[in-house]
Amino acid sequence: MTTATPNVAKAFRLDEMPLETVREGFARTGIRSQEAMHTVNWFEPGFKTAGPHAHAFDQVSYVLAGSMRFWVDDEVFDLVAPSVLYIPANAPHCAEPLGTERALNVDVFAPVRSDYLPLCAHQQFVP
């Protein structure tokens, strides 16, 4: 039987967290709290988006390194680190890196996305 680890403060290096490769040039990991989910996304230069998607909750996207182009509804946003973009619920959106530098993007979702919980397994969070 596995004993649950109590929730305690813990620091993580973003560049040392376990990554899930989504597609060549795009890998991610996650961290969560009781009410929110954060995905840490690494985009390699030249990665091309698969196209827009939408979901029923708000998203806040931080660009912490490099630069990225976001498409939201009919608007285009070019963000250079450090920048942040609010994406409203149900808005079709997608993103890809710009330039020759690896981009680091952190997305914040609330409530917690159950489909992304495996990204946070390393955290041993107990809900």
Structural description of this entry:
The protein is mainly β and 127 residues long. The chain has a single domain (19-121), classed as Jelly Rolls, CATH 2.60.120. It is 0% helix and 43% strand. It has strands at residues 20-23, 26-32, 37-43, 59-65, 67-72, 75-80, 83-87, 93-98, 103-109. The model has no long low-confidence stretch (mean pLDDT 92).
Strand-helix topology:
Blueprint: E1 20-23, E2 26-32, E3 37-43, E4 59-65, E5 67-72, E6 75-80, E7 83-87, E8 93-98, E9 103-109
Give descriptors for this structure.
single chain; 127 residues; mainly beta; Jelly Rolls; 6-stranded antiparallel β-sheet; 3-stranded antiparallel β-sheet; 9 strands
Number of helices: 0
Kindly report the CATH topology: Jelly Rolls
Quaternary state of this entry equals single chain
* Number of DSSP strand runs: 9
Sheet with the most strands, sense and barrel status? 6 strands, antiparallel
Could you give the order of strands across the largest sheet? 1-2-3-9-4-7
**CA-based gyration radius:** 15 Å
Low-confidence stretches: none
Total number of distinct structural domains: 1
User: What fraction of residues sit in β-strands?
Assistant: 35-45%
Distance between the termini: 18 Å
CATH architecture: Sandwich
User: Mean pLDDT, rounded to whole units?
Assistant: 92
In CATH, what is the homologous superfamily? Jelly Rolls
Form type: globular
CATH top level is Mainly Beta
Give me a quick take on this structure:
The protein has 127 residues and is an all-beta fold. It is 0% helix and 43% strand.
